[in-house]
Amino acid sequence: MVGGAVASNAAGAGDRFDGLVGRIDRLLAGPVPDRSSRPTVVVTEPPVLAATASPEATVRPTVGPVGASASGSPAASAVPTPIPTPLPPRVAVDVDILDDPEASFVHQATKDWCAVAGTQMVLAIHDRAPTSDDFQRELASRIGEWESYDDSHNGKWGPAAMALALEAYGVPGYEVRAYETRASALRDAARQVALTDAPAILLTWRGAHTWVMTGYRADADPVTFADATVSGAYILDPWYPSVSSIWGPSNPPGFFTGLEELEENYLRWKRPEGQYADRDERFIAVVPTIPRGG
């Protein structure tokens, strides 16, 4: 399902040829397996941490003067009432888990391997894979282990296959999530990046492309504030330095991608090969749930 960008070529002849080759390969490989895969979790509201009292919160009595009750009899022990822990100040945050984005960057070896390269970058950030072309080819060759019709009707890499591949190489806990709004998707992805110190994957270009999100800027900490607004994200785009005839030039590794550019590229899922009940018209991300190294 998840292919790469479309490179400029003479009247699209190269794309048509590659498409024909892909269809022939699919026929030779047989039908896409109709088997269970990782589910897509539909998130109507982003998960947040409620501001509740901590176990060590200060307590205060709820009865009258010490030694006497309201009726004049000896007072029972004061009943402690937790004082909710106050929220920290609401301040803007700028987070990127990578000091050297170039060190983890991988360019997709073919126009269809954006999901492969994106998965490889996540593995590299987790110290589970090299950034070599040889490893990318190895990873791409294993799609038959993870493909399923509900994840990708045309047998290519879908977001569930990415999560399964990550687990196969020692990085469990990635979850495919679908959101009603872009703001919710970005806030939840940012929150999971902050909680786990691990990258998230955004399914851009209506689900046709893969961006790895390693950080973000927001007007407040999304872990603490449910209404934090994410104004942009730090992105590793496997298509760089290529140029798409549809989407234009890509940005270098670790480039801060502002909200305007996200609005142009991070779009609602809509695939030409058919319908996906839990994904259609929603924003899709593959997010970490287990801390890096944990």
Essential attributes:
Cathepsin B, Chain A; 12 strands; 18% strand; 294 residues; 25% helix; two-stranded antiparallel ribbon; alpha+beta; 7 helices
General description of the model:
The protein is of the alpha+beta class. It has a domain at 37-42 and 91-287: Alpha-Beta Complex (Cathepsin B, Chain A), CATH 3.90.70. The chain has 7 helices and 12 strands. Strands 1, 4, 5, 6, 7, 8, 11 and 12 form an 8-stranded mixed sheet that branches. It has a two-stranded antiparallel sheet with strand order 2-3. α3 (114-125) packs parallel to α5 (159-168). The protein is globular and about 75 Å long. The chain starts with 12 loop residues before the first helix and ends in a 7-residue tail after the last strand. Mean pLDDT is 84; it is low at 4-28 and 46-72.
CATH architecture of the domain at 37-42 and 91-287: Alpha-Beta Complex
User: Average pLDDT across residues?
Assistant: 84
Q: From N to C, what is the helix and strand string?
A: HEEEEHHHHEHEEEEEEHE
State the total count of DSSP E strands. Answer: 12
- Classify the beta-strand content into a percent band: 15-25%
Given the structure, what is the number of helices? 7
Q: Shape, please?
A: globular
Instruction: Pick out the low-confidence regions.
Output: 4-28, 46-72
Query: Structural class of the secondary structure composition?
Result: alpha+beta
Largest sheet: 8 strands, mixed
End-to-end Cα distance: 31 Å
**Regarding CATH, which class of the domain at 37-42 and 91-287?**
Alpha Beta
CATH topology-level fold name of the domain at 37-42 and 91-287: Cathepsin B, Chain A
Instruction: Give Rg in angstroms.
Output: 24 Å
